[in-house]
Amino acid sequence: MRGSETEAIETISIALRHHRERAGISLSELAKRAGVAKSTLSQLESGEGNPGVETLWALAVALNVPFSRLVELPTPHTRVIRAGQAPRIRAEHSGFAAGLLSSCPAGASRDIHEIALDAGELRRAEPHQPGTVEHLIVVSGSMRSGPVEEPAELGPGDYTTFSGAVPHVYQAVNGPTTAVLIMEHS
Amino acid sequence: MRGSETEAIETISIALRHHRERAGISLSELAKRAGVAKSTLSQLESGEGNPGVETLWALAVALNVPFSRLVELPTPHTRVIRAGQAPRIRAEHSGFAAGLLSSCPAGASRDIHEIALDAGELRRAEPHQPGTVEHLIVVSGSMRSGPVEEPAELGPGDYTTFSGAVPHVYQAVNGPTTAVLIMEHS
DNA sequence: GAACTGCGTTCGTCAAGGCGAACGATCGGT
DNA sequence: ACCGATCGTTCGCCTTGACGAACGCAGTTC
User: Fold this and answer.
1) Which residues fall in a coiled-coil region (chains A, B) (predicted)?
2) How far, in Å, CA of B172 to CA of B157, rounded?
């Protein structure tokens, strides 16, 4: 800990410069907007120092960029998941089998699930971890899905997103239905 | 800056406790694994202090959790995008029309695009911002998509993800094809 | 060419973070 | 009941981040 750990600050250094130049503002201007000393910002962009979270937070706000963008550069590998061939790493998702894929090599923050429902079939999912977000895309058939109190009617190609932290449902309305579910979870 | 700024550290305090308890390890154990003093961790979970990035980074690694999960709790609203009804906020995506939705109220880090291709139609996309990640789900037809040097063959329900930072293609192989594209960008 | 504005860097000071040690509390085992 | 282990918190010390001021540079303006 003490001494090495260049990984985090390198990332920050790069991201900081990138977003500032992208916003088209000077170092001085950003420092002024964020309420951070020019000297501090200068050092950060030079890759020196271990900035406090509040400092970074202020910079993220001033840059109008999500905090995570300053500290995490997504560098995914190209991947393909075939319909019906998703690996069964985690066997159960709220009571029914589903395939899973982590798109990030380390961290495993995203799952891809296939959902296949028979005509009229209804599946209830209990709340997941707080902060879980679900993205659903209907491939074929028609579906009623979302939070139990207000599920949405969806057809092929329709997309919906909702919080996974509340009870939610997946139901085939007319005939067999398939969909892809992307789960971001904490 | 100096004095207030409880927003960030509150989030961190909660997230830290949450993930540690979820991992089922003690405060002492986590401190040992992360190479962080128990006292430091104790204070952080109490919501005191403005932790350095390296400290948080080490904790994230020890918890096997993406850094951003410690500092950002996604709280999305439920949304639905109908096939063919995606709002045309941004008219062009690499040269062709596409619908767009930001799932996060502030930050706008994710776009949803619909892609409709005629039989055999090929669309090339120039590289986007570094750090851009694309998620593609084929709804109907068949598609060849991915980085230009190694596009993947996809059928209905197939999923692929690849970096948007390199040139990539979307091509309908046999007959008209539709797909949904989720773009995360920096 | 002198004065001026804005840029990014460097320097010295001060407050705050991170550390180890010691502490009381809570269990389990003999 | 005693002892040991582990838990999470609190206490001084030292390191380090963040600050403001001053610096050197470049491009304008008069």
Assistant:
1) none
2) 15
pLDDT at B7: 66
Q: Are B117 and B181 within 8 A, CB to CB?
A: no
* Total length of chain B: 186
- Are the C-beta atoms of B58 and A5 separated by less than 8 Å? yes
Confidence of residue A111 (pLDDT cuts 50, 70, 90): low
Average confidence score pLDDT of chain A: 72
Q: Could you confirm whether domain B6-70 is CATH 1.10.260.40? A: yes
Gap between the Cα atoms of A158 and A180, Å rounded? 11
Instruction: Find the CB nearest A114 among B73, B75, B157.
Output: B157
Strand partners, A134: A162, A183
Mean pLDDT along residues A80-107: 37
| Residue A3 scores a pLDDT above 50 | no
pLDDT at B144: 92
A1's CB contacts (< 8 A; 6+ apart) are: B34, B35, B36, B54, B55, B58
Chain A residue numbers touching B83 (CB-CB < 8 A): 155-158
The domain locations on chain B are 6-70, 92-184
Which residues, at least 6 apart from A131, have a Cβ–Cβ distance to it below 8 Å? A165, A185, A186, B69, B73, B74, B75
CB neighbours of residue B42 within 10 Å: 13
- Tokens standing for B90? 């941004």
Q: Which helix (H) or strand (E) holds B32?
A: helix B27-34
Q: Which nucleotide is nearest to A55 (CA to C1')?
A: D18
- Work out the pLDDT band at B97, boundaries 50, 70, 90: very low
Whole-number Å distance between alpha carbons of B123 and B4? 50
Interatomic CA–C1' length for residue B37 and nucleotide D13, angstroms? 15
Instruction: Give the CA angle between residues B52, B55, B57 to the nearest 5°.
Output: 105
B83 contacts A8? CB cut-off 8 A: no
A92-184, which class in CATH?
A: mainly beta
What global pTM score does this model have? Answer: 0.57
List, for residues A21-77, the tens digit of each pLDDT value.
Answer: 877 888 888 889 888 898 988 888 888 878 888 888 888 888 877 777 777 655 455
pLDDT given for residue B106 in this prediction: 27
